[in-house]
Design a protein that fits this description.
The protein has 356 residues and is an alpha+beta fold. 22% of the residues lie in helices and 23% in strands. 33% of the residues are buried.
Amino acid sequence: MKKTSTRLADGRELLYYDLSDDAARDARDERPLPPVRTASEIRADRLLGESVIVASHRQDRTYHPPPDACPLCPSRGGRRTEIPADDYDVVVFENRFPSLTGDAGRCEVVCFTSDHDASFADLTGEQAGLVLDALTDRTAELAQHPGVEQVFCFENRGEEIGVTLGHPHGQIYAYPFVTPRTASMLRTTAEHAAHTGGRNLFDDVLAEERADGRRVVLAGEHWTAFVPYAARWPYEVHLYPNRRVPDLVALDDAARTEFPQLYLELLRRFDRIFDGTDEGRDGAAQSPTPYISGWHQAPLSAANRGDFALHLELFTIRRTSGKLKFLAGSESGMNVFINDVPPEAAAERLREVASE
């Protein structure tokens, strides 16, 4: 992997990650961009003990541009975009409309490929491995930024999820606090250790799922993908390295080598979940399966950081053909999820749609 750092016209950092060591990245951003103006603010919810981000400037972010105006495509034919080069493998740059800025953290955009019409599932194993290397590098570097407490790498895919740019891309949030979901996991992990004489909760959950087998979707030498026993979403899969590590940086070479094969197969299965029932309620063909995929990594200064297990959580909000899972009263109001698809049935379906 070759890494090249440069700056956009307004001063934001941009990094190229290339498969070839011969890649030359000397194209300059010639756009007359005004300075980035942001208004991010973190407020404390005193009743819940959680943080809320207020970012009013994001109301003006780019919204569903046509393909020929996509800001994440390479700069070609006289049209200038966020990426000055006329082609690229993987690119990471500071978001022009970030939710977190300055002392309140940092937000980055990760472009998986220069092909506007592709998806992550279309990548080769080598390309997917390069994305993993880029996310690992960014995790390591952002962990050194003052005030950063947790790094979250994720992909939103599909308009149903709320994606405003169709180009295949993900994001990285460097939070200045521990997110509520992670704080809950750390708390239950500590409680489990106290009640079991020091046993690790993540290790026990993984071992139990592998032993049971009913919810296991894929099992490799170094990774296991399973539908959790209490899945919240219609189709939800957790992907764990079989050897517990706290973050992407700690993965060994064997796990890195195997990851692209398993993850790409998992994404391709998600796109086949609804095969045979691929028409929406109006009779029109459905879009590819919308999903959210995110890496859960240990906070940087947590006392029991080593007890946390890096894992990826992948889920779709589509529950059946033409129907989405909405977060209504119970979910949005009380954070109590109601799942219409039994986890065992979801796992069985994901095994049925394996690649031939």
